[in-house]
Description:
The protein has helices spanning 3-6, 37-49, 69-85, 102-109, 136-145, 159-162, 165-173, 191-202, 216-225, 229-234, and strands at residues 20-21, 54-57, 60-61, 91-94, 97-99, 122-126, 149-153, 177-181, 208-210. The longest helix has 17 residues, at 69-85. The chain is globular and about 50 Å long. By secondary structure, the chain is of the alpha/beta class. The chain has ten helices and nine strands. Helices cover 38% and strands 14% of the residues.
Amino acid sequence: MFGSLFGKRKPSADLDFPVVDLHSHMLPGIDDGAANVEESITMLRTFQEMGYRKVITTPHITTGYDNTPEIIRGKLEEVRSAADAAGLTIHIEAAAEYFLDERFMSLVNEGQEILTLGTRKHVLIETAFMTRPIMLVEVVKTLQNLGYRPIYAHPERYTYLQSNWDSVKKIYNSGILFQINAMSLIGYYDNAPRKLAERLIDEGMVSFIGSDCHKPKHAELYKKARESKYFAKALELDIQNNTL
Length: 244
């Protein structure tokens, strides 16, 4: 079905490729992603050409990027209008990538709006790269008790996990869903993230593959990542992108 969309296929040609991307930064001027609408459209055009039907873009909400649902929705409409004018047919939605800090927990505990992905209240969270968050497992349980389905953004990139497999297993066993970045599979972020991403795939611990696309160059690198051996191996797992 997808062979005509994606061109030359790897040996596992019977496997469906993701047609939904759940992690990117394509809204202009509100985080470290697209600088302007032109970059947004360039990235979206590349994803459409790759056969993607939907992008759920996820701007940062963290210190320095004080985004709100209102800001994000306003930028989403701006990009949708530009995409329509450019003749693109790819569907664009927006959620957020929440940094796990006191601000996020205040939003949760006060019952304020949390931007989620899809219809099953998936929420994308990230942490600091160097420092292991003490309360991560407890926060996961809190979110689950409130009906959310937390997704752990790019665990392979956190240095506090790269040499601590026991911590990886503890976090995974909390019930959080792991989302790896496709570009990790070609060593874009260095060798340690690549190795951990591969091990997560080997152990069947990956539920989502994301682009984490910030700039047009990332969209081009994503094409290369999709041709990697471990991308094909990941597709043998229960990858849930297309359920969103």
